[in-house]
Design a protein that fits this description.
The protein is mainly α. It has one domain. Helix content is 83%, strand content 0%. The protein has 5 helices and no strands. The longest helix is centred in the C-terminal third of the chain and has 47 residues. 18% of the residues are buried.
């Protein structure tokens, strides 16, 4: 169940990240609308659009890609822990706006904090499960190796 929820979040990140890379202006307008802000009427430089593509597009896309890659294979379980910290960081940074910017949240912000915080928790839980599974496999292999060595001696 956790794996499937994390897969859903990861695919959402991939889709959102690709959308940002293709249409950063549209994403900015949509996010401002979701947050109850006035539409942006200024000029965005190519450098600003590049930053938007890099951080909101590229980084968010790769968070999703790495999560998908690491979900099913115990060998990649250690990848999930830094991902959990990344999601926790985004949730805490987003939540800090409540204290720093006047104490009100939009529904968009609340939903994002909840999703990012939950994702961090689920990634941490799943990481520990995969690491435990990986350790059990290694212990079984070590036991088989020592049994084979014992049988060879006698």
């Amino acid at each position: 169940m956790i794996r499937h929820l994390l897969l859903l979040v990861a695919l959402g990140n991939i889709g959102f990240g690709v959308w940002v890379m293709i249409e950063p202006r549209m994403v900015i307008d949509q996010m401002l609308e979701w947050q109850g802000s006035e539409p942006y009427s200024g000029v965005l430089s190519a450098a600003s659009l590049g930053e938007m593509r890099a951080l909101m597009g590229g980084l968010v896309t790769m968070l999703g890609v790495v999560t998908v890659r690491a979900l099913w294979n115990p060998i990649y379980a250690t990848w999930l822990q830094p991902l959990a910290w990344c999601y926790l960081g985004t949730a805490l940074a987003r939540a800090s706006s409540y204290l720093l910017d006047g104490g009100s949240f939009s529904r968009y912000t609340f939903i994002c904090v909840a999703i990012e915080g939950s994702t961090a928790l689920l990634l941490g839980i799943h990481c520990q499960r995969l690491l435990r599974e990986h350790e059990e496999l290694e212990d079984e292999e070590d036991l088989e190796d020592s049994e084979e060595m014992y049988e060879e001696e006698f």
